[in-house]
Design brief:
Length: 555
């Protein structure tokens, strides 16, 4: 049909000579007669088949010789995809009517003109695979590519439902992007508590186009998902599934969706087993987690048909330049005293836990907890003053929260509460969305978003800012880049400044050299690697030793 805002009435009859599984469907529409008859007949046949599967009453009426009618709305109003209270009655309101569910089949094929050429290629690549890992560089629009491919699958009747799983903090982002790029699809957010969990999932499953949830819901997958797997499962930030013994990964293995698409800019974070585990989820008939023991070249060769990766410099010539700099700072007097005392205690017999020592020293490079002094906080405030004068915005990322809270306090004192928004893990999804919206829409007065790197470093688009502060860095370059690329991505029109800090005469100097060597190794080998903090520090200690890390520390 050529008119996406069509009005139609689908009639189901009982004659068997139309070649449509015993159904006659007549379409009354403003666009009737402008479409090819064969295309219309096929779509009506598929829509009627789905309608009869959805509602047994229709099939019973047809068998009795009756002609029931299914109203397909011109512009359906799906309402909110969220419940107001965690009750089963509220979840029942998310169910869609039969006409709303079959509507995508009767629309024209969605156009992809709004996408970049490389994104259109990505959509076609996804459509040709039941199992796929879309591993594009951060900021290249993996979400919109998947949503566009999903729309086409619904339009072609290749799927009847889809399950999107993402981190908690990205549920609102997916809800917004689905509404923007696929408005004809009804979306239901399912995050019910344990007491009504099974009933809530069973109530909504099969009666909505897209079910949207977070990974915690898959630790023990709802029974209905195991009994009736979705036609498509999308796992965003799929590196969350890299550990094959984790509960959420085990839960995902229990599902057998018709198609499984994984989205991640870091398909290999720790070792080859990460990649093998993901591959065994998207293509279980060809891979197993134990394939991580294969030679790297062998696994890469087998995995190539299932992974699509493009990098910014290869596909986006129009992105503005990025100026990335490292500033060497001197610790404040209080930081220096605290740092020296921590090193002295270690060297004079209070050896204790080496990992705890390194974590303590890193924290002291950020801020002295006793006095609140911080050379980094002072430098960020100075730079924010200039950024604010220019009418621009900044995002400050930190793995540790003490400095972010001190920054928020100091910014509020200087420029008022509206100048800084805090985004940390203890906030629920609504609070996180409110903080990001406040930063995006707050005008030039909303100068800074102070974000936990673990929370703000995934899935967000923050192109309203063109300054990025990496207050501290993870041991692995790709994790730092992932945070930076919340700003350096499609939609950014201004030159971006990235500020990294390194405290003179501390372990940060030694780690900066390690980061440079790791970057060269990672880019050459697998591009993207990461590890947990304790594992990372253990590896660094094995390679260089704690005394080497302390050798250049302030004396």
């Amino acid at each position: 049909m050529t008119d996406p805002s069509f009005k139609c009435l689908m009639q189901v009859g009982g004659e068997e000579d139309e070649g449509t599984n015993g159904l006659i469907l007549r379409l009354r529409s403003h666009s009737e007669g402008r479409s090819e008859a064969a295309t219309v007949a096929r779509r009506l046949a598929l829509a009627s088949e789905w309608a009869l599967d959805l509602d047994a009453q229709y099939r019973d009426l047809v068998r009795a010789g009756r002609s029931p009618q299914v109203i397909v709305p011109a512009m359906p109003h799906f309402g909110g995809g969220r419940v107001r209270s965690e009750t089963l009655a509220e979840y029942r309101t998310l169910r869609l009517g039969t006409g709303e569910l079959i509507r995508p089949l009767l629309l024209d094929s969605p156009e992809l003109k709004a996408l970049y050429p490389f994104q259109r290629q990505g959509v076609e690549w996804l459509l040709g695979r039941c199992g796929a890992i879309l591993a594009d560089d951060m900021g290249l629009g993996k979400t919109v590519q998947v949503i566009s491919a999903m729309r086409l699958l619904f339009n072609r009747a290749a799927i009847r439902n889809a399950l999107v799983v993402c981190p908690k903090g990205l549920v609102a982002t997916w809800e917004r992007e689905l509404g923007r790029w696929a408005p004809e699809l009804g979306v239901a957010i399912l995050t019910p508590p344990a007491r009504i969990r099974e009933d809530a999932w069973r109530t909504v499953a099969g009666r909505c186009h897209v079910l949207l949830t977070h990974y915690e819901q898959l630790r023990t997958p709802p029974t209905v998902l195991r009994e009736s797997p979705p036609g498509l499962m999308v796992a965003d930030e799929a590196h969350r599934l890299r550990k094959r013994d984790a509960r959420v990964t085990s839960g995902s293995f229990q599902l057998r969706p018709g198609r499984f698409w994984a989205l991640t800019g870091t398909p290999l974070e720790r070792d080859l087993e990460d990649l093998a585990t993901l591959l065994s989820l998207v293509a279980p008939e060809h891979f197993a987690p134990t394939d991580g023991k294969l030679h790297p070249s062998s696994l890469r060769s087998r995995a190539r048909p299932y992974i699509l990766r493009r990098r910014k410099q290869e596909v986006l010539e129009e992105l503005p330049p990025v100026l990335d700099s490292i500033e060497v700072l001197d610790l404040s007097a209080a930081q220096t005293r605290a740092y020296r005392e921590a090193v002295r205690r270690y060297r004079t017999g209070e050896k204790g836990d080496e990992l705890a020592l390194l974590t303590r020293l890193q924290s002291l490079c950020d801020i002295d907890p006793e006095s609140g002094q911080s050379c980094k906080v002072e430098r960020v405030l100075t730079l924010l003053d200039r950024i604010r004068e220019q009418g621009e915005k900044a995002v400050v990322f930190s793995y540790r929260l003490e400095a972010l809270r001190e920054l928020q306090r100091r910014i509020t004192q200087r420029w008022g509460e509206e100048a800084a928004a805090l985004l940390v893990g203890e906030m629920d999804s609504v609070e996180r969305e409110r903080a990001v919206t406040r930063f995006r829409n707050g005008g030039v007065q909303a100068t800074a978003l102070l974000a936990s790197t673990r929370i703000g470093g995934e899935g967000l688009t923050l192109v309203e800012a063109n300054h990025v502060f990496l207050f501290n860095q993870w041991w692995n370059p790709s994790s730092n880049d992932q945070a930076r690329d919340r700003v350096v991505r499609i939609g950014q029109t201004r030159k971006v400044r990235v500020y990294r800090f390194c405290c003179r005469g501390t372990i940060e100097e030694a780690l900066e050299r390690i980061l440079r060597s790791k970057r060269a190794l990672f880019e050459d080998a697998v591009e993207r690697l990461a590890q947990s903090e304790s594992t990372a520090w253990s590896r660094v200690l094995r390679e260089v030793g704690v005394e080497h890390l302390l050798s250049e520390s302030v004396q």
